Amino acid sequence: MKSPSIFALVLATGALVACAPEDITPTAPMALDGVKLEVEALPQTPCDASQPYAARVRWTVSDWADPKFDFHLRSSQGQLWARANTAEGEKTTEMWVTPGLWFVMVDRNGRVVVAATPAPALVCPVG
């Protein structure tokens, strides 16, 4: 005979799975009203556009009650790159960014995608 505790555990596990937010993979840049997310390729020496590069990620958020954000790579549940507890800020990556890599800003409280933008191509100076 199965015990009530096993049934409760199975039921609780099912409830957690049902409450897990959907993994969102962006296909176009987006931002909620009052949110700005920018990814800037930083100059490299020597500059080689075919190689990974460092980038600066900047964000600003207006009228957000409790600014706690996670920055994921590729999707809303992708690799966690950074966390911030401010409505405005910036962080710099190491040299692992490639053109088209998505930076996805997620509200840590509600697990809502706030903004998403792809990394730009690295532009090397001519001459």
In short:
The chain is mostly beta strands and 127 residues long. Helix content is 13%, strand content 34%.
Overall description:
The structure is a single chain. The chain has 127 residues and is mainly β. The protein has one domain (23-118): Immunoglobulin-like, CATH 2.60.40. 13% of the residues lie in helices and 34% in strands. It has 1 helix and 8 strands; from the N terminus they run H-E-E-E-E-E-E-E-E. It has a 5-stranded antiparallel sheet, with no helix packed on it. Strand 4 and strand 5 (80-84) form a beta hairpin. The longest helix is centred in the N-terminal third of the chain and has 16 residues, at 4-19. Residues 6-18 have low confidence and may be disordered.
What is the topological layout?
Blueprint: H1 4-19, E1 30-31, E2 35-41, E3 55-61, E4 69-73, E5 80-84, E6 88-92, E7 102-107, E8 113-118
Antiparallel strand pairs: 1-8, 2-3, 3-6, 4-5, 4-7, 7-8
Number of strands: 8
Question: Can you tell me the CATH class?
Answer: Mainly Beta
Which strand-content bin applies to the residues? 25-35%
* The CATH topology: Immunoglobulin-like
In total, the number of domains comes to: 1
Poorly predicted ranges: 6-18
N-to-C CA distance: 79 Å
CATH level-two architecture: Sandwich
The coarse silhouette is elongated
Strands of the biggest beta sheet: in what spatial order? 1-8-7-4-5
> Biggest β-sheet, characterized?
5 strands, antiparallel
| Mean pLDDT over the full residue set | 88
